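Entry details:
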Amino acid sequence: MQLELEQIQDLASDKAFAKIGMLHIELNQLRSDIRTKTTGGITMDELNNLYLGTNKELNIWKYIAELIEKSNKN
């Protein structure tokens, strides 16, 4: 079954926004872990780096979502 371009665009948009939602949840949890110093099996520096990396990934996915939305308008 071949997907139509519009279906692919909708699915791509859904996937990007789902990823953004999950990254927001991850960032909130990481922020809470940093605040409470709940590091699990990693160091505080590693936890901070994980937070920074997740924040960077969120910004990338926001950019991807923006590109998808712009291409859907054409």
Remarks:
- The mean pLDDT is 95.
- The radius of gyration is 16 Å.
- Residues 13-72 form one domain.
